[in-house]
Amino acid sequence: MISICNIGERVKKIYKILLLLLFANSSFAVTKVDITRSHIAPLPIAIAEFSGSKNLGDYIRNIVIKDLESTGLFRVIDKAAYIEKENIDSIPTFISWKTINASALVIGDIKESNQKISIHYKMWDVFSQKEAGNNNFSGASQENLRRIAHKISDDIYKKLTGEEGYFNTKISYVSLTKNPAGAVKRRIAIMDQDGHNHEYLTNSESLVLTPRISPSINNILYLSYENHLNPQVKSINIKTKSSNILGHFKGMSYAPRYVDNSRVLLSIVKNGISNIHLLNLDTMEQKQITNCTSICTSPSASPDKKQIVFNSDAGGSRQLYVMDFDGKNAERISFSNGYYSSPIWSPRGDLIAFTKIVPRKGFFIGVMRPDGSGERLITKGWLVDGASWAPNGRVLMFEKENGPQMGKQIYTIDITGSNERVLNTPHEAADPTWSNSLD
Amino acid sequence: MIKNVFLSILLSFVFCLSSCQNSSKSSLYDGSGGTAVPGSQQDLNTSAGNFVLFKLSSNQLDDNAIETLKKQVDWLKRYRYINIIVEGHCDERGTREFNLALGARRANIVRDYLVNSGIDSARITTISYGKERPTVLGSGMEVWRQNRRANVIIR
């Protein structure tokens, strides 16, 4: 029986069913965390070798394959199995692709003239025999070819899942290296989502923590101990690498999080007490939002900028709270057994990711709805923390230590709990932050 | 004036006698092989104690902590020209940002105790390192117990 709906709809359906199943079970027991991993078999697709230029074609094709396979949703069938050589301008011989079990077929063609490269790609639904994608990227050059390749990946991903792709994104994190004397040096690093174009932005011996990329992807905020008597949040320009202290507060400022390009939420310590402040980057005006008598920290704004989720021990133990943007109507949203921290609002607005510590069970990364319902723990580790969302709100990135003294690494995971994988970095890595998609 | 100098030399001699019996840990702080210079970090470490420990997730001072702090107050009253940094620290079994907040709480409760005991607040700076600067490397209950601390460092 051949299904009548196209592949995109099928993948979308699978995703929907998966999410429905996960959220239906809202009374989630912690002990079940390991068996909640929902594995779906990756969809087999074919990506024919690009015509026009073997070198450039292979380069782009390999990037696209790596992008798509990294999602765990697709498997690109080995080209050795391909029976047919297709032309981008003709209708493919569908039976040949059906035979090797390909659900979709991608065909690409490259044209070069005067150092300018144009790339044309088409995607076919092998079962419905209909065109499923078709896009032309002209004006490419050797320098931006990786970005164009990621754009093709974004396009294919969107056509097949209905979600925005996240392959043209940057990741910033803290790189840890040990000097011969054993002291740990931390540097703010930035790289493409797939590990390419890796670069260090700071090179100070003093402690640096918690980088956060601006929505415009021009600046990164981070906590710097350069002033060893008063650590402060600094802002560094990604291109020029020039940096400046944000604000100059009397007490330590930390836990910065962008609301938008001109506003930042952060915590400021006064007499040992942490409160959340809103700082306007254009006017440098600041406003205290919370009135805590102990700890209020780790603020993260909802994408509609109407609410803020934060971490507080106001009720005796560390829990998550949601309040209005002006600090009113704070309500606790985390209630099940354990301690919660490091909340971050999904860019879709539908979920809040967090770290949960359950005594005698360990550290978990989980998600819940903004009203606290539907808590779901998606991964566990000896230590996991610092979740950050992909711009499409489907994938999380976090820091993980697999055991005592085993070192820190960055992992990504699908919010269904499947496809957990380590991100390759040159050294130990902590505190990941995921950017928006580049233009 | 001369009397004062004489007194402090005498005092330091007495303190040295008691401190020299202390563990080799103190020699980390100067190269003199255990002779504490009066008013030095090593002198503080050995004659008063330069750290207090905290229970899990707590910023409360227990009896042991208060005993140490009383000695620190005496020491700070003796060396009135010395300014200090109180560092708040946490063990590695917490989350990064919350531990920065908790470290600040711990440093502050020590500062408050010292100030309430008559030490000029202008002499004290507080800082939190969260879980990023353990004093004992490694893992396990004993290691974590020793890392949940507030240190007093001479500026």
Task: Provide an overview of this structure.
The complex is a heterodimer of chains A (439) and B (155). Chain A has 439 residues and is mainly β. Chain A has two domains: 41-161, TolB, N-terminal domain (Rossmann fold, 3-Layer(aba) Sandwich), CATH 3.40.50; 169-437, Neuraminidase. Chain A contains four helices and 29 strands. A five-stranded mixed sheet of chain A has the order 2-1-3-4-5, covered by helices on one side. Chain A has a four-stranded antiparallel sheet with strand order 8-7-6-29, with no helix packed on it. Chain A has a four-stranded antiparallel sheet with strand order 9-10-11-12, with no helix packed on it. In chain A, helix 2 (54-70) crosses helix 4. Chain A is globular, with a radius of gyration of 23 Å. Chain B is an alpha+beta fold and 155 residues long. Chain B has a domain at 48-154: 2-Layer Sandwich (60s Ribosomal Protein L30, Chain: A). Helix content of chain B is 45%, strand content 14%. Chain B has five helices and four strands. Chain B has helices spanning 2-19, 41-47, 63-78, 96-116, 141-147; strands at 51-53, 84-89, 124-130, 149-154. Chain B starts with a helix and ends with a strand. The chains are: A mainly beta (439), B alpha+beta (155). Chain A binds chain B through residues 207, 209-210, 223, 228-231, 252, 254-255, 267, 269, 271-274, 294-295, 297-298, 311, 317-318, 339, 341-342, 355, 357, 383, 385-386, 404-405, 431, and chain B through 57, 59, 85, 92-98, 100-102, 104-109, 111-112, 125-130, 132-133, 138-140.
